[in-house]
Structures are given as C-alpha cells and as structure tokens.
Amino acid sequence: MSQANRFVLKHALEVFTGGWPWGRESKDLPAPYRLHAAPLGGRRRRGDMLADAVFVCMSAITAYCLGHGLQGMARLLWIGASGPPASGFQVQEPYGALLLVYVTLVLFANESQEVYRAARVRTNMDETLAILKAVALATLVLAAFIFLSGAKGVSLSVVFLSGLLNVTSLAAWRIWRRGVITRRVSNEKGGRNALIVGVGQTGQELARYLSGRKDLGYVVKGFLDGNHPIDRRVLGHIEDLPRIVRSEFVDDIFITVPSEQGAVRAVSLEARGNRLGVKLVPEFYDELGRQAPLEYLGDFPMIELCRKSIPRFSLLAKRAVDVMVATAGLVLLSPLLAVTAVAIKLDDPGPALYRAVRIGKKGRKFVCYKFRSMVSDADCHKEDLRHLNERSGPFFKISNDPRQTRVGKFLRKFSVDELPQFWNVFKGDMSLVGPRPHPIDDFEKYQMEHLRRLDVTPGITGLWQVVARRDPSFERNMRLDLEYIENWNFWLDLKILLKTVPTVLSGTGE
To answer: All domains of the chain, ordered by start, with CATH?
Structure first.
C-alpha cells in the first residue's frame, strides 16, 4: 500500500470518529489533500434531523387531537394562554416536556440505526425498516417512562398512535424526496453534473453505479484521463480541466486515482478556484474496502477534499418566494393579461404569445413565454438586421426595431411583454431574479468564460436590468451577472426586485 493510501486510511478513521475538522484546512494533510478536507453529508444530515423533528411534532399533535377529539384540540390551542378554556378543564400534564423528550428519543434512535449517515444508500424498504426500528424503540422507551412515572392523563394509545404516524411520515417524505430526485435526473431538469478523474476499473464502476442510481442525484458527464485517449467517454486530460468544467457545467469531481498526487493537486486547486466539490475514492476500494470505516456514497468509500458550499435554506426561500409571487402575479394580473392578448390579436395577425427556446441553468433548453411584440415572422428577419445590432458581443438588440408592432412598442416600453414569464418562474425554468436567458444563436457565440452565467437559474429581472439596462456592452452585462452570482444572497434579490419596480414604471424598456 502506497504512502498516500496509508495516509488516507489513517485519516479515514478520524472522519469516522468525527476527528476531522469541518470546513477548515488540515495542516497535517500532505499537500495534494490540504484543501478543506471535510466529512460528507454534514448539511444534509442536519437538514434531515430538523425535518424529522418537525414531522415528529406534527405526528404527536395529530395523534393527540385524534385521541382526544375536539376537546384535545381545544387543550392544545389553550396551551400558553392566560386562563383556562371555556369548557372549564385544566391542563396539568406536561405535554410539552414529553413531546421534547419524544423528539430527542426519535432522533437518537434514528442515529443508532444510522439513518442520518451519508453512508451506503439504502433501498426504500431498508430505510423504512431502519426507521421502524428506531421509532419503535423511542416509542417503547417513552411509554415505559410514562407508565413507571405514573403520569396521569397521558394515554398510551395516543403515544402508540403517534409512533405509527411517525413511521409513516418519516419514511414517506424520504421516499418522496428520492422519487423527486430520480424524476429530475431522468428528465434532465436537475441533478449534479459529475466528472470522474481516471477511466480505470474503479472509475468505470463508479460511473455505472451513479448512472444506475439516479436517486443519488448525479449525472456523469465523462472522464478525465491521459492514458486512455481513444475512449469516447474521455473528455480530455487533466490540463483540459478548466475548459471541461465550464463546458460541461460540472458540480462535483470524483478522483479515482489518488496515488497520482500531481493530478490530485491540479484537480483540487482548479476545483477550489471554481467552488466545485472534490471527492476522492481510495485505491484500496475492493470487497474489503467496502467494510472500511469511511463515509460512503452508495457502496463507494469517499473522502471529501473540497466542498462546494450550498446555501440550501436561502435557495429554498428563494424558490418559495418565486412560487408565491408568480402565482399571485398570474392570478391578480389575469385581467391585464387577457386585455393584452386581445390587443395584440387586434393589432397584428398571429398568436398573442411568443414561444422561444432559451438557454437556462447549466445549458438546459426551455421554452420562454412572452407576449408577442413583433410581427409573426420576426425571427426569419433577424440575420438580415444583424448589421444594425447596437450591442457588442453575442447579444442582439435594436432600439427602434422595424419588426415591432404598434402595441408591441408599448409592451416593451413598460416590460408588459415579460409578464407571461411568471409561468416560467412557476414551472422552475426561471426565477424572479437572475441573469436574463439568451436565445440559442446568441448562446452559440459565447466564449468559454461566458458560460459562468449559466451556473444559476435565469431570471425575469437582474442586476444588469436595474444598473445598466441601456448599456450596450455585453462585457459589462457579463460583469454584472457574475457579480450577482458571486455575491448572491436572499436580500440581494429583494433589493433588485424593489429597484425593478421604478425602473419598469419609468418606461425605459426597448
């Protein structure tokens, strides 16, 4: 076993026992590995525990209400009030304390069954059985505590009903999540793009495994390997990594040749600069390696060298706001949408809606909806007008476009033509805020560095629209888009939305 592998095995024990620092550089690591070494699945684990705690509380409250009927619901509503409920009964049982104990017991029991470990991925049946064992243990301990303590008024039937509901809810939401991930990866509307370094036996086994287990959420884009250039799945050599990362929109890199320290170093440095995740598969991966005390991705032992920080809560909040605002916009503005559609039809023959293929996140194509503001065959004349383009770079814009209709000029002036894109936001193809999606012919003129703007979901409005809407420079457009991507947070979106309103009302659209 090489020195590098002995080192990996030694520190794998630290990962298993929690001794590896999270999110910090380890000064003890050899140079190729000294890049934010961290255990897998920390954020996912905390998120699962929080979700379980919420479901346990909901199940316990539901069981209590079912067990005590309307009176039980009145008791729950009265908890914390200044006086007794109208029915005159008093609440003396420590329901809140017992619920806290039960939540703690379930979380500890799930931990004992390795439900929260980012370990070998279970099947739905295996995971449900693990949850059943954990919840049964926690429920029995709570029931024994209530019986031995002599707590009066606490029905054991309610406790066991709560346990049944917990098994159902905790298993159901995991099955639902796995199904959502599988469908998104299968439909090429989600998933994390993976690049595998090394096309040897381990690399090929990993590729087959990730491709067969779509519920893991990975899409294998190809391999990097200088020793097998004739394999059509090999996208290039290590020195081609910067280009391939951008062109394939890579999220995670899996290294299956850890003994090649030069390759590990190069990949890790490039990944760190591009905020990519890097996971290393030790070379002692075999039937014995499957039993090693490491973090696992499915059956594969992994050591994470670099981690791409994902603000999951902020992204969830962003998506929630997108759905709520898009739904409200479609409903509240429906009279305006209808009047606009009629005006377009009366002004110029042809459809009211313009459907155009645009390039979205990670280069995925989607149909973008707008109110038609030009003549029906406007796309056929685009190349004839290319010499009048007022924007630089792969970006086409004419202030007084001769293809515009009379109604279309007004719609574009106040951005009314963009309103149907609320439907794109609702579907998830777009967000309220983000870089504007470009047509395919503009996208085909991108340079390699321009692809970075496709790392995020495109938006109806963005930083460029509220800062330099009439600036003809594509390069400034790119700088503003990248500034938004690099500095994104939920509050930045809110600021851009607030600035968009006066920008639209000023009638500066073209």
So the answer is: 3-39+191-308 (3.40.50.720), 44-185 (no CATH), 313-505 (no CATH)
Q: Is 239 helix (H, G, I), strand (E, B) or coil?
A: helix
- To which H or E segment does residue 270 belong? helix 261-274
Q: In a structure prediction context, what are the per-residue pLDDT tens digits for the chain, which is 510 residues long? A: 444 444 433 433 333 333 333 333 333 333 333 333 334 455 567 778 888 999 998 888 888 777 665 555 555 544 444 444 444 444 445 677 788 888 989 999 888 888 887 545 667 888 889 899 999 999 998 888 888 877 666 678 888 898 999 999 999 998 998 888 888 888 777 788 999 998 888 888 899 888 888 888 888 999 988 776 667 788 888 888 888 888 888 888 998 887 777 778 888 877 777 778 888 887 654 444 444 446 777 777 777 777 666 677 788 889 999 999 999 999 999 999 999 999 998 888 888 999 989 999 888 889 999 999 888 877 777 777 777 776 666 667 777 777 888 888 888 888 899 999 999 999 999 999 999 898 888 888 887 778 888 888 999 998 888 887 766 677 788 888 888 888 888 888 989 999 888 888 776 655
Largest distance between two CA atoms of the chain: 87
The residues, ordered by sequence, that sit 6+ positions from 137 with a Cβ below 8 Å of its Cβ are 105, 109, 112
| Nearest residue to 294 via CA among 280, 313, 308, 306 | 280
**Among residues 326, 212, 298, 197, which one has the least CA distance to residue 254?**
197
Distances (CA, A) of 302 to 34, 177, 194, 288: 16, 23, 14, 14
For residue 403, give every residue at least 6 positions away whose Cβ sits within 8 Å of its Cβ, in sequence order, or none. Answer: 374, 375, 378, 381, 385
Task: List C-alpha distances in Å: 203 to 173, 224, 283, 288, 299.
Answer: 32, 10, 11, 18, 13
Is the CB of residue 241 less than 8 Å from the CB of residue 212? no
Question: Which runs of consecutive H residues, i.e. helices, occur in 82-155?
Answer: 95-112, 124-149
β-strands 353-359, 365-371: how paired? antiparallel
d(CA 173, CA 179): 10
Q: Quick one: which of 113, 130, 231 has its CA closest to 174?
A: 130
Q: How far apart are the first and last CA of the chain?
A: 66
Cα–Cα distance, 119 to 456 (Å, whole number): 29
- Token pair 């067990």: residue: 67
Structure tokens at 203: 């690399």
**Reported pTM:** 0.67
The Cβ of residue 201 has, within 10 Å, a number of other Cβ atoms equal to 11
- Residue 244, both tokens: 């391939």
> CA 3 to CA 99: how far, in whole Å?
51
Is the distance from CB of 271 to CB of 277 less than 8 angstroms?
A: yes
